[in-house]
Design brief:
Blueprint (H helix, E strand, L loop, with lengths): L1 E6 L3 H12 L4 E7 L2 H9 L5 E5 L7 H8 L4 E6 L5 H6 L4 E4 L4 H15 L10 H4 E3 L5 E5 L6 E5 L3 E7 L2 E6 L3 E4 L3 H7 L5 E5 L2 E4 L5 E3 L2 E4 L2 E4 L2 H13 L2
Parallel strand pairs: 1-2, 1-3, 3-4, 4-5
Antiparallel strand pairs: 6-7, 7-8, 9-10, 9-13, 10-11, 12-13, 14-15, 15-16
Length: 243
């Protein structure tokens, strides 16, 4: 089980997270607190694996917390202010939850955490071509599933964004999330370049699925995706050209 704490200076907000945590058997609620220093002490004592952390707190902000705790735990940020997303992702947080936090969105973030704590076994003795099969000249591709001979058909129109985690990726559609043992760079080569764009070391987005851009944050449905510094100039050039 993943040991968790919920940290928010507003008690009702941390209790909402606690309620979500209790619903998932893979998570163990170690505690809730409105005091960031108390949470930091628990992390430093090795009692916590995952922190649900409010980014705006008095005395010690979420970003300061991240800088102090370093690699001693994983963090999912929570806040009502999307403009802080980019800085959070630069500190390698798992995800960024905008308040009010629905259980569905919370669960998506937990799935990302579970992949980091319990990564899938690598596919052995398979070439890139058998891991993911692009379909040239068509509007879909086949993605290798979790079993040896399972391939999942994915329409390009259905893809919202792709997230890379080490040597595997998550392909997010409106209805499902598909995990496959593939690098983000390999996936980038397969996707149509006029429809998909690498915007961060960990993200590829479907251009037509972007709901809003606010500063260096991209909104696709309720998901916030950062624009990395390396990709910023090219991204905004393409966005300006599509006006």
């Amino acid at each position: 089980m993943i040991r968790c704490i919920a940290v928010d200076d507003e008690a009702y907000a941390s209790e909402i997270l606690a309620t979500h945590i209790r619903k998932l058997p893979s998570l163990e609620l170690v505690g809730t607190t409105t005091n960031a220093f108390e949470a930091l002490a628990m992390v430093q004592e090795g009692k916590v694996d995952l922190v649900f952390l409010d980014i705006q707190m008095p005395e010690l902000t979420g970003i300061q917390f991240l800088k102090i705790c370093g690699q001693k735990c994983k963090v999912i940020l929570t806040t009502a202010y999307p403009e802080y997303a980019l800085e959070g992702f630069e500190h390698d947080v798992i995800d960024y939850l905008l308040k009010p936090i629905s259980f569905e969105r919370f669960y998506k973030a937990v799935q990302k955490a579970e992949l980091l704590f319990h990564p899938p076994a690598p596919v052995v003795n398979e070439t890139i071509e058998t891991i993911a099969l692009p379909a040239p000249g068509t509007d879909y591709m086949f993605i290798k599933g979790e079993s040896k001979n399972k391939f999942i058909k994915v329409n390009y129109d259905d893809i919202l964004y792709v997230e890379g985690l080490k040597n595997y990726i998550s392909v997010f559609t409106a209805k499902e999330r598909i995990i496959t043992y593939l690098t983000l760079r390999e996936m980038e080569l397969y996707l149509p370049k006029n429809r998909f764009l690498r915007v961060h070391k960990s993200y590829i987005v479907a251009i037509d699925k972007i709901r809003m851009i606010d500063g260096n944050s991209i909104f696709i449905n309720e998901n916030v995706i950062p624009v990395g510094e390396t990709y910023r100039e090219e991204f905004f050039k393409i966005i300006r050209e599509t006006k």
